[in-house]
Amino acid sequence: GDGGNDISMIRAAGMGIAMGGASEAVKSVADYITEAVDENGVRNALVRFGILE
Length: 53
What we know:
Elements: H1 7-12, E1 17-18, H2 24-29, E2 32-33, H3 41-48
Parallel strand pairs: 1-2
């Protein structure tokens, strides 16, 4: 997630991931913070957690 509207989703998820450009409020509830979207953050998180190689 990256916006305030994602906070409840991140809290409900078994593993919450915030994007690098997310607000500090979002980052504070995330379990992991990846890079920004334009820095391949989604892909990097998927690789980090073994979903992609």
